[in-house]
C-alpha cells in the first residue's frame, strides 16, 4: 500500500476521526436538515446567514486553503490527474442556487462527502487491476497473510484511505503528488468479512468501503476451541436461533454460519467484555462472538455467499 502525502502529519487524529465518522454517515444515511428547505439546503445565501449550519458535523475548510489545492494523482496506469482549486470547489457543499455554502458561524466552506465519494469512485475506475503474488492477503492492519489454496485476482482502491487523504488535502490546502492507494485482494472481491483473531477485531467491507470495525471474542484457546482460520463464505442468515452443543445451549438473535452449522458469527448478549485477551481463557466454543449492540447493523450488511477471511 502506498504511503500518503507528507502533509497528512499535520492533521490530528481527532480531525481524521471526525472525517471518518462523517464519511461513513454520508455513505449510509441520506442527509436530513432540521431547518431550511426540504433538500436541507437554504434557498439562497442570505437565508443561510439566518440559519444554523444545516451541514452540522461535516468537516470544514478555509476558503483560502481550498484555492491552494493542487494534487497530482498517479493513477497507476501511466497517467495522472490533477485536482486544483477549481476542482476542489466541486467537492464542497452548495446552496440550492449553486453558490458555495459558507457556514455563517465560522466563515468556512463545508466538505461534501457525497461529492468526495463520487470523485474517488471516478478515480478508482481508471486504476488498472494488477496481479500481486498469489494467495497473499493484505489485512486491515497492514499484515500480509498467506493462504495456500486461494488465488489472487487483483487489487481494489482503498476507498477509506483515499477519502481521508482527500479530506486532509482540502482542509490543509495541500500541494502534493499522490499515488492512489490500493488494497491487494484475494478472490474475496471488494465486499467481505475480515476476522483478525490476533487483534480480536472484525471488519466488514462493502464495495471497498469499511462499514464496521468491532472488537470480538473468538474461540477459547486454553480449552482448545480455537476458531478456524482460512477463507470461508456466509452459508446462511438466520434470526432467533438456539445454538446447542455438548455443554451449552445459547439463544442468539442473529446467526451467520461459516463452517457447517457449527461455527459462525453471532451476537453474544451474555458477554460483558469483547476484544483484548478475553479469547485466550474465556473465549467461545469456536464461534465469532459480536457485541449485541453491533450485530444488528452487521447483519444488515452480511449476505449469503459473502466471503469471510479469518486468520491469527
Structural class: alpha+beta
Q: What's the total helix number?
A: 8
> Could you describe the largest sheet, including whether it forms a barrel?
5 strands, mixed
CATH topology name of the largest domain, in short, is Ubiquitin-like (UB roll)
Quote the distance from N terminus to C terminus. Answer: 21 Å
* Amount of beta strand: 25-35%
Going across the biggest sheet, name each strand in turn: 12-11-10-18-13
Shape: elongated
Number of strands: 18
Q: What are the low-pLDDT stretches, counting only 5+ consecutive residues below 50?
A: 1-50
* CATH class division of the largest domain: Alpha Beta
**Total tally of structural domains:** 2
Radius of gyration: 22 Å
Secondary-structure arrangement, i.e. CATH architecture of the largest domain: Roll
Q: Give the topology string: H per helix, E per strand.
A: HHEHEEHEHEEEHEEEEEEEEEHEHE
Helix-residue proportion: 10-25%
pLDDT averaged over residues = 81
3D architecture notes:
- This protein starts with 12 loop residues before the first helix and ends with a strand.
- The chain is α+β, with helices and mostly antiparallel strands and 312 residues long.
- The chain has a five-stranded mixed sheet, covered by helices on one side. Strands 14-15-16-17 form a four-stranded mixed sheet, with helices on one face.
- The protein has two domains: 181 residues, Ubiquitin-like (UB roll) (Roll); 120 residues, L,D-transpeptidase catalytic domain-like (Beta Barrel), CATH 2.40.440.
- The N terminus is likely disordered.
- It has eight helices and 18 strands.
- α1 packs across α6 and α5 crosses α6.
- A hairpin with a 5-residue loop joins β5 and β6.
Amino acid at each position: 500500500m502506498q504511503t500518503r502525502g507528507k502533509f497528512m502529519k499535520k492533521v490530528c487524529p481527532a480531525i481524521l476521526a471526525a472525517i471518518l465518522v462523517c464519511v461513513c454517515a454520508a455513505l449510509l444515511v441520506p442527509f436530513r436538515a432540521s431547518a431550511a428547505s426540504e433538500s436541507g439546503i437554504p434557498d439562497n445565501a442570505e437565508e443561510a446567514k439566518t440559519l444554523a449550519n444545516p451541514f452540522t458535523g461535516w468537516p470544514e475548510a478555509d476558503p483560502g486553503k481550498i484555492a491552494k489545492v493542487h494534487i497530482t494523482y498517479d493513477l497507476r496506469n501511466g497517467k495522472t490527474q490533477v485536482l486544483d482549486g477549481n476542482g476542489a470547489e466541486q467537492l464542497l457543499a452548495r446552496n440550492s442556487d449553486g453558490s458555495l455554502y459558507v457556514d455563517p458561524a465560522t466563515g468556512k466552506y463545508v466538505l461534501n462527502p457525497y461529492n468526495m465519494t463520487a470523485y474517488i469512485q471516478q478515480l478508482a475506475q481508471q486504476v488498472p487491476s494488477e496481479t500481486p503474488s498469489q494467495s497473499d492477503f493484505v489485512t486491515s492492519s497492514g499484515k500480509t497473510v498467506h493462504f495456500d489454496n486461494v488465488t489472487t485476482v487483483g487489487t481494489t482502491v482503498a476507498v477509506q484511505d483515499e477519502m481521508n487523504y482527500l479530506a486532509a488535502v482540502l482542509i490543509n490546502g495541500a500541494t502534493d503528488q499522490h499515488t492512489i492507494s490500493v488494497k491487494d485482494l484475494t478472490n474475496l472481491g471488494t465486499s467481505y468479512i475480515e476476522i483478525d483473531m490476533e487483534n480480536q477485531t472484525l471488519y466488514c467491507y462493502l464495495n471497498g468501503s469499511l462499514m464496521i470495525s468491532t472488537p470480538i471474542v473468538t474461540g477459547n484457546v486454553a480449552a482448545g476451541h480455537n476458531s478456524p482460520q482460512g477463507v470461508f463464505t456466509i452459508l446462511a442468515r438466520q434470526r432467533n436461533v438456539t445454538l446447542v452443543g455438548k455443554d451449552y445451549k445459547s439463544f442468539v438473535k442473529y446467526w451467520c454460519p461459516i463452517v457447517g452449522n457449527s461455527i459462525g458469527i453471532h451476537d453474544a448478549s451474555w458477554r460483558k467484555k469483547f476484544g483484548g485477551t478475553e479469547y485466550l481463557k474465556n473465549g467461545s466454543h469456536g464461534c465469532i462472538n459480536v457485541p449485541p449492540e453491533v450485530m444488528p447493523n452487521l447483519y444488515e450488511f452480511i449476505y449469503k455467499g459473502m466471503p469471510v477471511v479469518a486468520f491469527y
